[in-house]
Design a protein that fits this description.
By secondary structure, the protein is an all-alpha fold. The chain folds into 2 domains: 64 residues; 111 residues, N-utilizing Substance Protein B Homolog, Chain A, CATH 1.10.940.10. Helix content is 69%, strand content 0%. The chain contains 8 helices and no strands. The chain is globular. Keywords: RNA-binding, Transcription, Transcription antitermination, Transcription regulation.
Length: 205
């Protein structure tokens, strides 16, 4: 099965979601389980080309999968899965996303927390929304922006929020990521200005 980057991001969210309930679940086992139960991932979906009826059908499918994963994970049914480590090849970028979020969770969550307004915090976010944010923020902070344009990472997160959450959460996620994007851009502009000033000083000397 050949997966596009949109499907890989969706898988990363779902696998991270599962592992919150069952931290011992391997990436390979989670990957195989989702592929067995989410046939839609095998299709390349262009959300802009979907009719309203098709989008509703896809959305309903996604919500049912999320509910199913939560139920199975809390019931520890994953313990009954066979060891599939040698039978499944996990896409490289999927591994990068899932393991990258784990390795950099503190910095990622801190960045999210810094841009949540009011009385909200990372701990109060609905788990699926938090996973969507974590994947997107990882891409913003730790991947090459030439390879993964930042606006693409943000737009993909918003599309996932449409599937796995409600409109209020989508706007919430959009707001947080837009603020993070603005901060990163401002920091880059400041660094570029500093480099320009240093170069000018060297020329004068």
């Amino acid at each position: 099965m050949k997966l596009g980057l949109s499907q890989i991001r969706e898988l990363a969210v779902l696998i991270s979601y599962q592992q919150e309930f069952n931290p011992q679940l391997s990436l390979e086992s989670a990957f195989k389980h989702i592929l067995q139960n989410h046939k839609k991932l095998g299709q390349k979906v262009n959300f802009e080309e979907l009719t309203e009826e098709e989008f509703i059908e896809y959305e309903n499918h996604a919500i049912k999968l999320k509910d199913s994963i939560e139920h199975i994970s809390t019931k520890n049914h994953f313990d009954k899965l066979p060891d599939v480590t040698e039978d499944v090849t996990v896409p490289a970028y999927l591994r990068t996303l899932v393991e990258g979020v784990k390795a950099n969770r503190f910095e990622i969550d801190q960045m999210i927390d810094n841009h949540i307004h009011g009385n909200w915090s990372v701990q109060r976010l609905e788990l699926v929304n938090l996973q969507i944010l974590r994947i997107a923020v990882f891409e913003l902070l730790f991947t090459d922006k030439e390879t993964v344009p930042r606006v693409v990472a943000v737009n993909e997160a918003i599309e996932l929020a449409k599937l796995y959450s409600d409109d209020r959460a989508r706007k919430f996620i959009n707001g947080i990521l837009s603020n993070i994007l603005a901060e990163l851009k401002a920091n880059e502009d400041t660094n570029d200005e500093h480099k320009t000033n240093v170069s000018a000083e060297n020329m004068v000397e």
